[in-house]
Amino acid sequence: MSQILSRTRIQDIDALRGFALLGILVVNITFAASGFPIHVADDPAYQSSLDQAVHWVSATFVDMKFYLLFSFLFGYSFQLQLEAAQRAGAGFKPRMLRRLGGLFVIGVLHAIFLITGDILSVYALIGLILLAMRRVKDRTALIVAGAIYAYLFVSLGATALFLDTSAFLDPAGAVAAAQETSANLGGSFGDIIGEHVKALPVYGLSLLTVQGPTTLAAFLLGLVAGRRRLLANVTGKEAVLRRIQLVGFVVGITGGMIYASGGNGDTGAVLASVLTAPFLTAAYVATLLRMMHSDRGQDLRRVLAPAGQMALSNYLGQSVATMLVFTGIGFGLVGQVSPLETMGIAVAIFAVQVVLSHLWMSRYGYGPAEGVLRAITNATAPTWQRKV
Fold this sequence. Notes:
By secondary structure, the chain is mainly alpha-helical. It has helices at 2-33, 49-61, 66-87, 92-113, 120-132, 138-162, 171-185, 189-228, 239-261, 267-292, 298-309, 311-326, 339-361, 368-378.
């Protein structure tokens, strides 16, 4: 019985990670489908009421939420990996450094060759901070996470109040640049790589100002949760889960609506999303945990868990799939797909990944990319531990 419960708890984490993958794909696919999101510009070809509604739904319920869940789970798993490496004896720090180094290299290759932007290289760099903070007390980790959000409140709030960002925006120039980017993404492999490289400085600025700090905060929260095994004894009946849902949905959806209603470059709207996104993310987690531990919802865990178990492979696979669908080396649909169709393609890609994940994990112990990263971590030849 204890083995069954232990496996269920592991599946909870994997299922949450699989759920996060879907949300991340819904966001990332927009950067593959068109050059306009890359330049924070509105595509004049898709301005119907339906197009606007899809953008509004995504901004309210998806944007800036799921990378936080992915980051929280990274911090949670990082703590478990640290403990496993320490139990293995001497040399745990070199093992973790090799793991982060391998993740960084994979992330850089991903950003250059597959899609605009990447989170893996960022995780590797911030993971170094997490490794350095591995001995801090829980209270210190929570204070640092809180301080990060206090900094964002002050910096983004001051920008919204005292800096007229519209003076720096050139809508016509952004549209022209977006059209050029779309044309290049529909061109040769060299054109595609050129666009990916060209976007790195802008993406880096975003990471420095918002996504990087919030990722570190989520890492730290995950680290503390991992130490306390907060996801290890969930039954789905905890009253705290209902309270998280109540507060999280009210605060998170309100902030998401403010963000969705703000225009491009609206720092106040971004601030509202940054401060409230963790609440909606927490509400999603509480809801999924309650569902997965209900009589009717157990199948949801079993469906999502294999996808989350090989999350790295699926994250990279999503970029390969969107590249084949939208860029010039595949079907070349960049700039030709509506927001609703783009979201539908994202759901279809994820559905295929769920099926493939079940097939792969029924035969092997690790996903394709996970096996490579594990080999780098252990300084051994890659192995996927074929199941019998």
